[in-house]
Structures are given as structure tokens and as C-alpha cells.
Spore germination GerAC-like C-terminal domain-containing protein (bioreactor metagenome), 81 residues
Amino acid sequence: MQEKIKKTITDTFKSAQDLGADIYGFGAALYQKHPKEWRAMKPNWDALFKDIDFSVEVDAHLAQTGQIVQSLEMEERMHEN
């Protein structure tokens, strides 16, 4: 499960880099934490973003599997019949 999540995040990030789309907001985070450095990088951010090296770590724990919860609306419909 963790590997599947990791692959999904990694593939999504690589696609975003290919498109030059900072969908995770790294530029905004950089601006908030390091505004001076951001100002220097901003003019070239699209090119810099495409070259960012990254790694993904996933730590997921499932409490229960196979449980499906019905919505209140579904419960009410079942009791009407």
C-alpha cells in the first residue's frame, strides 16, 4: 500500500514538473520561509522547479480494512422500504 501511494505521488510530481506546474506550492512555501532567497529565484522559478530533485517517504497505517460506511441518506432510504 505504501509503495502504491509513493508511486502515485512521485508520478504526479514528475508530471507537474514536466508541465512546469507547481501544484504542491513549493514556490509559495519557499516565499513564506525564505522571502529573500525566493526573490532571487522567482524570475527563473519555472526552470528551477523542473530540475528539483525530490524524494517521497510514505508512512501509512490502516486501522481497519474492508469496512464500508453508508451515508445517513442511504440508511434512511433502507428503512423506508
